[in-house]
Amino acid sequence: MKQRNDDSKKPASTRRKFLGTAAAGTAGATLAVPMIATAQTPKQMRFQSTWPSKDIFHEYALDFAKKVNDMTGGELKIEVLPAGAVVPAFGLLDAVSKGTLDGGHGVMGYNYGKQSAIALWTSGPAYGMDANMVLAWHKYGGGKQLLAELYKSIGANVVSFLTGPMPTQPLGWFKKPISKVDDLKGLKFRTNGLAIDMFTAMGAAVNALPAGEIVPAMDRGLLDGAEFNNASSDRVLGFPDVSKICMLQSFHQSSEQFEITFNKTKYDALPAKMKAIIENAVEAASADMSWKAVDRYSKDYAGMQAQNGVKFYKTPDSVLQAQLAVWDQVVAKKGADNPLFKKVEASMRAFAERAMKWDMDTNNPRRMAYNHYFGRKGAPPKKA
Known about the structure:
Blueprint: H1 12-32, E1 43-49, H2 56-71, E2 76-81, H3 92-98, E3 103-106, H4 131-140, H5 143-153, E4 158-165, E5 172-174, E6 188-190, H6 195-201, E7 205-207, H7 211-219, E8 225-226, H8 231-237, H9 239-242, E9 245-248, E10 257-263, H10 264-268, H11 272-306, E11 311-314, H12 317-337, H13 339-362, H14 366-374, E12 382-383
Parallel strand pairs: 1-2, 1-3, 6-7, 6-8, 9-11, 11-12
Antiparallel strand pairs: 3-10, 4-10, 5-8, 5-9
Helix pairs in contact: 2-11, 5-13, 6-12, 8-11, 12-13
């Protein structure tokens, strides 16, 4: 028969020693076991876009916020409000800089009045580059550092991220097709950024309006023509309700992109991990937006023709050539009065000369392939 191991029969001193040792061991084990994480209050950031809630642009802003919120596991939560919820669309930069808003989603052309060089990213022909190539210049060709210098020059307390390369924007919506440069003279027209200077020099009477005000102004006869951006935005904002004529292709904004801004003080206070997540979320949102745009814009482009009775025309080459000539005048004039403008323009031009040569020599002519496979089913837009 086995002897029972009974501590009660041990001397009291032995039992006390054992219990003391066990207690010490237990305490040590308690310290060694990782503490269970307790829920922390998520860091909240309030953003505003410069877009109406129904516009696909506001959807892009929400897409970015969701990526950040998901990637941080809820540690950072960005809430995005539509244009006008806190400040008017054109007041976004000031609101973010002052900390009234923690950040925002917009375009740099809306900041044109503060420093015209800022609009070089979004206005004009960009020397032939598309928006993705402009983003390449921004990230790898010195544009990012130049933009930081520009914001510093106007005292803007913001951190800026560029995202979302946009396709070439239409010349605009009109009462009748534009067949020559003289058709723009005296026209009450909406645009923004340095395109204001371009169309003004071409004889138009230009008025800069935010997205939600354009169609109502056309409906009331305050505008004879206007441009905004793309088939999906134009359709949901109601352009087909006030015009059935849209002119495609233009050099006034052939390479625009979005800008996501943070209040610099609040951004700098974030942990390095969150900053890294934000930077990567910007680029993930940029790629996702460009893919979504191809899908949605092409559907709405077809839908406006089939369901809304819109007629699309290619802008005549004579008008496009005139835009390039006028742009050269605008750039020369702005550069003469603004050293930073001249500095940015020279940097972009140098990058474009190299990148455009490579691009044109390397890539196939897409029109050739399209005509081969689909030419019998649908012709390209006709000239006015």
